[in-house]
Amino acid sequence: MEVNIHESWKPYLQNEFKKDYFKLLVEFVKDEYKNNTCYPPASEIFKAFNMCPFQEIKVVIIGQDPYHGFGQANGLCFSVHDGIAHPPSLKNIFKELESDIFKPYPVSGNLEEWAKQGVLLLNATLTVRAHEAGSHQNKGWELFTDSIIKTISDKQNDVVFLLWGGFAKKKSKLIDTKKHTILMSGHPSPLSANRGYWFGNKHFSKTNLVLKNKGLSPIKW
Question: CA quadruple 70, 147, 15, 18: dihedral positive or negative?
């Protein structure tokens, strides 16, 4: 696994790359990709960082695991490659967008345009073995991504963190609420959404209102 990460992130992550856990993680991921089918493609493992430079972060959305089906994961949480059917959670994200800001339901589930505007689409675990959800959890990725969340909190100002579901909400302890805004709701997965914990959260319009109030340009969701 090559750590092909945007230059803007390197000053903040150089020390992390030198830690023993990260070296072990790199060896684990290399071995997994060599001996198994894994997602996302190796070239897209760090895509979230390469599409969203550190200084341009406005919003952070935290997912848990990459999609583990063929051709789905593209290195951005909740996002899929062009032409891939929308997974259930992504469908519910787009349905909430429809009702919140009246955005027509999109054809593509690729969220690259969000990333280009300063939305860091961060999975807590950046890789997964095909058809085995959670297979790369507890191997070091969470230590790495927790340090990223903490670094953003410490070094940036006025970032909106969207924490969807119990797993993401636990990350709130890493975020300085005096400097940043946290919006929390249920997860967009059908299990949560159909129980009334997702729809109607209006996180997209609320995020843009926060950004406008801080003098920042809103996201074109």
Answer: negative
Query: Six-digit token pair at 195?
Result: 């129980």
Q: What is the pLDDT of residue 1?
A: 62
Of residues 65, 154, 158, 176, which has the active-site annotation? 65
Taken in order 83, 91, 6, 158, the sign of the CA dihedral is positive
CATH for 7-214 (2.60.40.10, 3.40.470.10, 3.40.50.12780, 3.40.50.2000): 3.40.470.10
- 20 counts as catalytic: no
Section 34-46 average pLDDT: 97
Give residue-wise pLDDT tens across range 77-94: 999 999 999 999 999 999
Beta-carbon-side half-sphere exposure of residue 59 (alpha carbons within 13 Å): 28
Peptide bond into 40 cis (omega under 30): yes
> Is the pLDDT reported for residue 123 higher than 90?
yes
Q: Any idea which residue has 């493992």 for tokens?
A: 45
| pTM for the model | 0.96
Every domain of the chain and the residues it spans: 7-214
